[in-house]
User: Fold this.
Amino acid sequence: FEGDQAVLRFEDGETVRPDILIGADGVHSRVRNAIVGPTQARESGICAFRALVPAAKAPDFARRHAQTLWIGPDHHLVHYPVSGEEYVNLVAFAPAGASSVESWTATATLRELLDEFAGWDPRLVELITAADTPGRWALLDREPLDHWNRGNATLLGDAAHPMFPFFAQGAAQAIEDGAVLALCLAAAPDNPIAALGRYEELRRRRTARLQEVSHGRSHINHLPDGPEQRARDLEYSQADPLRANGWIYEYDPETAVSASA
Ligand SMILES: Cc1cc2nc3c(=O)[nH]c(=O)nc-3n(C[C@H](O)[C@H](O)[C@H](O)COP(=O)(O)OP(=O)(O)OC[C@H]3O[C@@H](n4cnc5c(N)ncnc54)[C@H](O)[C@@H]3O)c2cc1C
Assistant:
């Protein structure tokens, strides 16, 4: 920054002074560091395994048109059909142990994934056994920000509000950010900095709440057996934990922006 003016310097030596800067550069965002000061994302101690099971090899229950959630001490696993029902997508969460690689391309072995769910329901073990080589991703953790604009710069997506994927909302919130930001900019073509202020004001509390509830899920979904676990199971048996959260899925960027006019 020169004062409140963002200045971009690229590896090829080019320097750009943009009208506005949108930092959509992910959980390790450099733009975030420039706006709020350098901070490191923390390792959460949780890792995600991701694998595809060819539908032809998947047990019947996993080919249903449904998202299925298996929960137990320190672990949970979600699966649902994808790719026109050609595959079943499987995402499992487990203690990270020594695994701290945060990458879409890092892999684990099927044995490692099976070991995490040893002794679970045989139907689940059957599904995992049919999976292709799983990817493994160490989840990072960051606190919500109390602001994410500076001068003519703002943040969007994981750069602003990375969250645990337990409500499957990280990319969804990045898309909502994009829609709201576009509407704010379109409404104030002569004052883009005011538009950035309005955008942050409209988006910050909602995304912070999602960061917090997603974080809370890591406790609720991984409870050891006991009274708290039994209370959770009762609650989940009475209301679909995803459907019970209408405030997440009902959001409409156009309504949010027009209501703030
Ligand atoms: C295991 C797991 C499961 C998930 N499941 C879901 C789900 O079901 N639904 C959902 O909505 N979300 C999910 N998410 C979250 C989702 O992946 C992220 O929230 C989303 O990718 C964030 O998008 P983004 O564009 O903000 O950041 P990113 O996808 O991280 O993109 C940032 C981009 O910026 C680039 N970049 C960074 N620094 C620089 C630089 N200096 N110069 C140039 N380019 C740079 C990067 O290369 C990258 O392409 C999941 C995440 C994980 C880890």
The first helix runs from residue 30 to 36. Helices lie at 30-36, 110-116, 122-129, 170-187, 192-220, 227-238, 246-249, 253-259. The pocket of flavin-adenine dinucleotide is lined by residues 24-26, 30, 48, 50, 137, 157-159, 165, 168-172, 174 (CB under 6 Å). The radius of gyration is 21 Å.
